UniProtKB/TrEMBL annotation:
GO terms for biological process: glutamine biosynthetic process. The lineage of its organism: Bacteria, Thermotogati, Deinococcota, Deinococci, Deinococcales. Residues 182-617 form the GS catalytic domain. GO terms for molecular function: glutamine synthetase activity. SMART domains: Gln-synt_C (SM01230). It comes from the Bacteria. SUPFAM superfamilies: Glutamine synthetase/guanido kinase. InterPro entries: Gln-synt_C, Gln_synt_N, Gln_synth/guanido_kin_cat_dom, Gln_synth_cat_dom, Gln_synth_gly_rich_site, GS_Type-3, GSIII_N. This is Glutamine synthetase type III. Keywords: Coiled coil. Residues 84-177 form the GS beta-grasp domain. It comes from Deinococcus radiophilus.
Length: 716
């Protein structure tokens, strides 16, 4: 039987790749393809190095005078490692990365050439901006856009079979300075956070010159399937998800997959990917199986969020290219298989001083806890005030299929604090003593503070935003998206809340109130005002959805198209302008691009569904019917024929409906078109799928040409 061969050939072992020893990995491989500060120190004169270091560590502007020297050092370092080309490596609003390679080769005028790379090329480049989404930002001014070196993320080398390229992280902006990428607002938001949090820290006694950054560790979930299947699934190839496929008899029901034993072939892929990520200085720490069959996760140690965002993009890239070497395909889509667990990218976020003090780590002393409670309150306020922005930051056509289904958090943004921390806030609010015995908590005239347990356990997987002991875990982001936007949102909304609470604190201190009393009052008031956002229960419960919307007045922006319009609300424009992260035009452009990407994604899916049903599934069923017509008049044959005919007619009818909807535009604007897709095309696709999935269960394997979930998900 053809399909059995398919399965057997997909299950083959791939060649072993030669791997560095564990010692070598850590001592020699780690960061070997990264131009580190140490590399720079040994290659630059002291004054040049100091100037660059101050830019990298303290955010001072780049001194253009050192660019030539730094460029030369970079070129030499890269050529020693086999690089023939260089590129500004940036993150346009497509969600992926872009690079345009130039060689180091330079003519000398006498027909000879030499290698060259100057300061001006390091500082700035001009890619063809017209092919990247701009949301109309370029149209009104100039078509050109340019990339500018971001010295705060280290340069690195990307290798391919035939050579290597020096990649210089860069921002991408229009000619009049409007952000056309993911990185610019992220960098601006980091500055905004620093501007907001430092004054607060100073009130808590931090020394002058302290800087604050946000830290991020992103857990990446993904599926692996054998490459053979991938090439037989045009939907996976072109849409990244299966548009057809019945749930297998054995789904996730056995619950034996999570943290289960990892198959050898998958482990070999993982080790290979990890050693390449190590070379890029990406501190991968954890790997394990996830909930669904064929699903896995990889997580790094957290880093400063700009570097973490670059590293996350590289991680996705390396995983995808490495999987191929092992005869596998890494699927990063949020919902490649309907009815199975989706894939997320949990963003673990915190704030830290440049000295490494985690501002969301409960401390051992009352003073530390005072500060901790202050910042926690700011986060509560931020999330409650800006549920819409967090929702927008994870909104995509693909994540719409994941949110609210099979272990993914729902579209309603709420916060989980766990019972212990919630109780501490409750006690503070009511003024009842800590631990029962002692009265006089915060604000009650005594410095005695409740003991705050470290690492209060949390395993509530349905909460979109959970405190996990010393950081927040934002679980709504989707597996395929860039983490830049979620992190930008977190930085901005927390910056805003901290600014406001710091203002209140300062006013109380000026009025002569003690620090601990003043903080106590602020924590209590903030908690009372915003505690509706805290929810420790089951996020799937229908009762919660009712309570959240009707009693608590929380937002329930069910789909991306419900969320996008909020981006340019008066509140949000004012917020982003207040913190100089994005202006009104930049926000409008982003919104336009979100609608456009949604439109393109679903439009492709609608047409693919039509094509596959028409050119593969209908003919498959008809071929099987033809065989059945010729195989006698038994009860089984007659029964099967009648069932198949009924279902195939249903498929045919659903297909006519989808064809009609695909042909409709729904309107002129990107918005109208997107709504047409959501409201008419997606339901029509689903009807086609339902009929086809029923047929899949009846048609013989021999005739059904699309590999099934049963085949794809269980081959190890
Ligand atoms: P958990 O057991 O709660 O999942 P882990 O310690 O395994 O916590 O961390 C999960 C992710 O959170 C990792 O990527 C880790 O690096 C990251 N993380 C830990 N501390 C921080 C922090 N202070 N800021 C940002 N991310 C963090
Ligand atoms: Mg997790």
């Amino acid at each position: 039987m053809e399909s059995d061969f398919r399965v057997i050939s997909a299950a083959r072992q791939t060649n072993l790749v030669e791997q560095p020893s564990p010692r070598e990995l850590i001592d020699d491989v780690y960061a070997s393809d990264v131009l580190t500060l140490d590399d720079l120190r040994s290659r630059l004169s002291k004054p040049v190095f100091r100037s660059l270091q101050s830019t990298i560590e303290r955010g001072t502007p780049v001194d253009a005078g050192i660019a030539d020297t730094v460029a030369l050092a970079m070129k030499n370092w890269a050529m020693e490692r086999g690089a023939s080309h260089y590129t500004h490596w940036f993150q346009p609003l497509t969600g992926s990365t872009a690079e345009k390679h130039d060689s180091f080769l330079s003519p000398m005028g006498d027909g000879k050439v030499m290698s060259a790379f100057g300061g001006s090329e390091l500082l700035q480049a001009e890619p063809d901006a017209s092919s990247f989404p701009s949301g109309g930002l370029r149209a009104t001014f100039e078509a050109r856009g340019y990339t500018v070196w971001d010295p705060t993320s280290p340069a690195f080398i990307l290798r391919h079979s035939g050579g290597a390229t020096l990649c210089i992280p860069a921002i991408f902006a229009s000619w009049n300075g409007e952000a056309l990428d993911q990185k610019t607002p992220l960098l601006r938001s980091t500055e905004a956070l620093n501007r907001a949090v430092v004054p607060a820290l100073r009130l808590f006694g931090a020394s002058e010159g302290t800087r604050v950054i946000s830290t991020l560790g992103a857990e990446q979930e993904y599926f692996l399937i054998a490459e053979e299947f991938y090439y037989q699934r045009p939907d996976l190839m072109m849409a990244g998800r299966t548009l057809f496929g019945a749930k297998p008899p054995r789904g996730q029901e056995l619950e034996d997959h999570y943290f289960g034993n990892i198959p050898d072939r998958v482990l070999t892929f993982m080790s290979d990917a990890e050693s390449q990520l190590y070379a890029l200085g990406i501190p991968i720490k954890t790997r394990h199986k996830e909930v669904a069959p064929g699903q896995f996760e990889l997580a790094p140690i957290f880093e400063e969020s700009n570097v973490a965002a670059d590293h996350q993009q590289l991680t996705m890239q390396v995983m995808q290219s490495t999987a191929r070497r092992h005869g596998l395909v890494a699927l990063l889509h949020e919902k490649p298989f309907a009815g199975m667990n989706g894939s997320g990218k949990h963003c673990n976020w915190s704030m830290s001083t440049d000295a490494g003090e985690n501002l969301l780590e409960p401390g051992d002393t009352p003073h530390e806890n005072l500060q901790f409670l202050f910042f926690c309150s700011a986060v509560i306020k931020a999330v409650d005030d800006h549920q819409d922005l967090l929702r927008i930051s994870v909104a995509s056509a693909s994540n719409d299929h994941r949110l609210g289904a099979q272990e993914a958090p729902p579209a309603i943004i709420s916060m989980f604090f766990g019972s212990e921390l919630t109780e501490i806030f409750e006690r503070l609010e009511s003024g009842v003593g800590g631990r029962g015995e002692r009265k006089g908590l915060l604000g009650m005239g005594s410095p005695v503070l409740p003991h705050i347990p470290r690492h209060a356990g949390d395993r509530n997987r349905t909460s979109p935003f959970a405190f996990t002991g010393n950081k927040f875990e934002f679980r709504a982001p989707g597996s395929s998206q860039s983490i830049s936007l979620p992190v930008t949102m977190l930085n901005v909304i927390v910056a805003d809340a901290v600014t406001e609470l710091t203002g209140q604190l300062q006013a109380r201190l000026d009025a002569g109130t003690d620090l601990d009393k003043a903080v106590g009052e602020i924590v209590r008031e903030t908690y009372t005002q915003h505690k509706r956002i805290l929810f420790n229960g089951d996020g799937y419960d229908e009762a919660w959805h009712r309570e959240a919307e009707q009693e608590r007045g929380l937002l329930n922006l069910r789909t991306s198209l419900d969320a996008y319009p909020q981006l340019t609300s008066e509140k949000n424009v004012a917020l982003f302008e207040r913190h100089q992260v994005l202006d009104a035009r930049e926000l409008e452009a982003r919104q336009e691009i979100m609608f456009d990407i949604y439109f393109k994604t679903v439009n492709i899916e609608g047409e693919l569904t039509e094509t596959i049903a028409q050119s593969v599934l209908l003919p498959n069923t008809l071929a099987y019917l033809r065989d059945l017509y010729a195989s006698g008049q038994s009860l089984a044959v007659k029964g099967l024929i009648s069932e198949l005919e009924t279902l195939n007619d249903a498929l045919y009818q659903a297909l006519q409906e989808l064809r009609t909807q695909n042909a409709e535009l729904g309107g002129e604007s990107a918005h109208e078109k997107a709504f047409h897709l959501r409201d008419n095309v997606l339901p029509a696709m689903l009807k086609v799928r339902r009929a086809a999935d029923e047929l899949e269960k009846l048609v013989s394997d021999e005739h059904w040409k699309l590999p099934t979930y049963r085949q794809m998900l269980f081959v190890k």
